[in-house]
Structures are given as C-alpha cells and as structure tokens.
Amino acid sequence: MKSKMLSALSAAALVVTGLTATVVTAAPASALACPAQVNPSTATNLSTPRTKALPGGRTLELRSGYVGGVQYAWARVVPNSLNGDNIWLDYSTTSGNGWAQCDLRTLSSTGRNYTQGFRTSSSSSIVMRAGYRTGGVTYLTTWW
Length: 144
Hints:
This protein has about 140 residues and is mainly β.
C-alpha cells in the first residue's frame, strides 16, 4: 500500500548541536490507511457512480455494489487494459484533502481489470475515486 498525504506533507528539520547533526521528521497527525477489502467479483446491485474517458475508447469506472449486504467501491477499466498499465482506488477520510492510494495493480491485457472493493460510508468526509495510468499519463475520476 502506498499512501499519499497531500494536505499533511511530512516536514524535516535539521538540528545541529556542536559537531553532531540530527534529522527530525514530523509525521502527519494521523496516517491514512486503506480500509478492509474484498474481491468484488460476486457483488450485486451494481452501479457506476463515476467514469473517465481513456485513450483508445476505454473507460475508467468507479463501480459500487454489495458483497454480503455491505456496499463496496472499486476501480475498473473497460473494455480492456493494456500490459503494464496501473489501476488503483484513492480513499479519503477528509473529503479528498488527503488520501491513501489503495490496491495499486499493474495490469495485463488478458488479466483482471479491476481493484479490490473498499467499504463505502454514508459520511460525507469518506470519498473515493478511481485512478489509472497508461502511457505515462494519469487519469482520475472525480471524488464520490
């Protein structure tokens, strides 16, 4: 898991005492982690709350559905992916002001084209978006 905290970047300070130098790193107030995940392949009541057009007639989707009576969201590319492309789901508990990059996957043209599913919430501060990187360019859906 790779976390990105844009609103709470870590700051480093150099403290010099005599001939000794010490690097002190300030960590974010709260580290954001990806929530529990499930394979959404058996999800029901499917919907696609967000999409983003990709080159070559493909579409990046933020999908949602229910697994075991609980709603989850995941990223998917359709109709197919390209070898070496990346897909992930960004998860935020601060309305998108900082997020964790969850389930970063390198795709193949014949393999799975979606991420794991992450539990949704009715809280307005919990938001998600799908991410995709192809040809050195990153594409993101809007937050949901």
